[in-house]
Design brief:
Elements lengths: L2 H6 L3 H10 L7 H21 L9 E5 L5 E3 H16 L3 E6 L6 E2 L7 E9 L10 E9 L10 H4 L6 E9 L3 E6 L4 E7 L4 E6 L10 E3 L10 H11 L10 E2 L5 H11 L2 E4 L12 H14 L3 E3 L20 E4 L1 H16 L6 H8 L1
Parallel strand pairs: 3-5, 11-12, 11-13
Antiparallel strand pairs: 1-2, 3-4, 5-6, 6-7, 7-8, 8-9, 9-10, 13-15, 14-15
This protein binds 2,5-anhydro-1,6-di-O-phosphono-D-glucitol and manganese (II) ion (MN) (2 copies).
């Protein structure tokens, strides 16, 4: 790469410092925390990329709070993230998918609370499909206490000060927002640096991908069934060029949705009335990122997902997120169909959306 070109590459650290310098009076604490998470991501990425060799595959012999078989890489990733979050001494509380109880950190007066899914998409580890790490960062509200209390954890997603994910895929990319847009950094493993590769990401207003596990079709709400049927009546000659893409790793499915547009939906259903994904360390961090990129993230009533009341740190939630046009159309179907007894006629569908 020519020297001039090399000069234009910005590392994650440089970008974080530049961002911090834009804020007069910034303490640099959040910057330090993001850098520490970046370090954990590099270490996890190294393990993920050689998992097949170092026999780190397979089940760690335990189950997590969700009752799911815990894979060794889950445990490794959880430990690496916890080390990283302890380094800065500014995190007082961590809630992890891998730990039933909230983890009160040594730095009991630290001003940040962090939710995390240290390894998302675990079921895909053994078949070499992309997996990820998801995190959401909040300010403690109980700063008059010597240690964090429940109210610090039960904050709506709208209170996040930062959120991000790391995707361990064909390359390792870290995407995050601090409320001033979304940026992506790709890891150069040969030198262990993340470089700015996706600056100021904006999700397309409309996208042709819909991403949902259609194996659950029969237990969806009628409105969602109608919306997906509408997408599937795919006729390239009309303006509805929909294509289905579902990887089964939320980080990979959301990353594609962020870059290419369309929808990612994990809905409530008859068998999973609250959905499957966890509100605080899967849905809300992704909702923050998608909104910051100009998209939408809503619940089954069409309300903003990040306004959802938080009652339990591991609570599940439905999630409908993606491009504005697609999400509004989906919400329309769910509302329209709810009020009507039978599904809208084919004619009504055509009129409704053309
Ligand atoms: P995790 O591995 O952290 O438990 O998350 C798995 C989640 C998410 O990554 C993905 O979108 C979803 O499970 C897929 O669920 P289905 O297999 O039911 O479609
Ligand atoms: Mn997950
Ligand atoms: Mn997980």
């Amino acid at each position: 790469m020519s020297p001039q070109k090399q000069d234009r590459l910005i590392t994650l650290e440089e970008f974080i410092i530049q961002g911090q310098n834009r804020f007069r009076g910034a303490t640099g604490d959040l910057s330090q925390l993001l850098r520490d998470i970046g370090l954990a991501a590099k270490i996890i990425s190294r393990e993920v990329n050689k998992a097949g060799i170092t026999n780190i595959l397979g089940v760690a012999g335990s189950t997590n709070v969700q009752g799911e078989a815990v894979k060794k890489l889950d445990v490794f990733s959880n430990n690496q993230m916890l080390h990283a979050l302890a380094r800065s001494k500014i995190v007082s509380l961590v809630i992890s998918e891998e730990n039933e109880e909230m983890i009160r950190m040594q730095s009991s007066t630290g001003k940040y609370v962090v939710f995390m899914d240290p390894l998302d998409g675990s079921s895909n580890i053994d078949v070499n499909v992309s997996i990820g790490t998801i995190f959401g960062i909040y300010m403690r509200t109980s700063d008059n206490e010597d240690y964090p209390v429940d109210v610090d954890a039960l904050q709506p997603g709208s209170q996040q000060v930062a959120a991000g994910y790391v995707l361990y895929g064909s390359s390792t990319i870290m995407v995050y927002t601090t409320g001033m847009g979304v940026n992506g950094f790709t890891l150069d493993p040969s030198i262990g640096e993340f470089f700015l590769s996706h600056s100021d990401i904006k999700i397309p207003e409309f996208g042709s991908f819909y991403s949902i596990n259609e194996g659950n079709y029969s237990s969806w709400s009628p409105g969602l069934q109608k919306y997906i049927e509408y997408c599937k009546e795919n006729d390239k000659s009309t303006s509805r060029p929909y294509t289905s893409r579902y990887i089964g790793s939320m980080v990979a499915d959301v990353h594609r949705t962020l870059l290419k547009g369309g929808t990612f939906i994990y809905p409530e259903s008859r068998t999973k009335p609250n959905g499957k994904l966890r509100l605080m360390y899967e849905c809300n961090p992704m909702a923050f990122i998608i909104e910051q990129a100009g998209g939408m993230a809503i619940d089954k009533n069409g309300d903003r997902l990040m306004d959802r009341e938080v009652k339990q740190i591991h609570q599940r939630s439905e999630v409908y997120l993606g491009s504005r046009e697609n999400i509004l159309a989906c919400a329309d179907f769910m509302k329209k169909y709810k009020s009507q007894k039978s599904g809208p006629s084919e004619k009504k569908l055509e009129e409704a959306f053309h």
